[in-house]
Amino acid sequence: MLCMLLLACACPGVASAGDSSPPSDQLTLSLDTSAVRIRARDMQWNGQRLQWDRRLADAGLFAAIEAQQRENDSDALLDLGGHRMWAHWIASGQVRLGGDNAFLPRRAIDLALGYRLRPDVVLQIGTTQARHADSNAHLASASLLLYRGDDEWEFGIRGGSAGNPSRRISLGFARGQWRCGAQWDCGAQVSAGRNVFGADELGLDTGDGWIAAAHAAYHLARGNSLRLDVAVGRANDFRQNTIALSYRHDLVQH
Fold first, then answer.
1. In a 10 Å sphere around its CB, with 0-12 CB exposed, 13-18 middle and 19+ buried, how is residue 201 labelled?
2. How far apart are alpha carbons 165 and 71 in whole angstroms?
3. Domain tally for the chain?
4. Where would I find the beta strands (DSSP E) of the chain?
5. pTM for this entry
6. What does the pLDDT read at residue 72?
7. Percent of the chain with pLDDT over 90
8. Alpha carbon distance 81, 67 (integer Å)
9. Is residue 156 part of a domain?
């Protein structure tokens, strides 16, 4: 899966801070498949993810199990995280545990801290530390998030090093999510720079490249929804086309 396209902020929309809505729980099942070419070799990668979310007025938690298959290898992850909002600060964290994984991280931690400059503007910094089978990744990011009603926008940079020998990662990214109909949410994101795949594919030096993605989510009755994601990535001797389908089920029916 194009993990680097998932550059959505770790914190929730600031518009929900202080919301008095009751707690809600959701289950999301996601399936994805990617057509990948590395140099002249074609292959298919697949992934599955089951995630539970609990949303509170000023906080949230999630737990997920993820599995991915690449040719003869199959890896799995336990993914745990959450966020907490205060008057001006937003903190979030995520831990991924993967045992003896071959290509997914064996251990990883993501931390982010945001400061609300205005009610609809958040400045966020973050760090990612990941240990893989025979190498590590060390990344830092900074971004600006803008909120307009139900719409959300983020512009930022990310950099660091990964792999053995170490390779530099340096990229910029932008993403947006907006209501595009009475029952539809739409979104798009793009990232470009040096080794945009480097945090996930530690054994490859992909040079300059880019990733573009878009999604559409349709809201069904009782808080349930379907979402379709498509993504395209290109770099030196590396290309990846991904499609993903997700179903979110609200455990507390409205």
1. buried
2. 25
3. 2
4. 24-38, 41-55, 59-70, 73-85, 89-97, 107-118, 121-131, 136-148, 151-162, 167-181, 184-194, 208-219, 225-235, 238-250
5. 0.90
6. 87
7. 79
8. 17
9. no
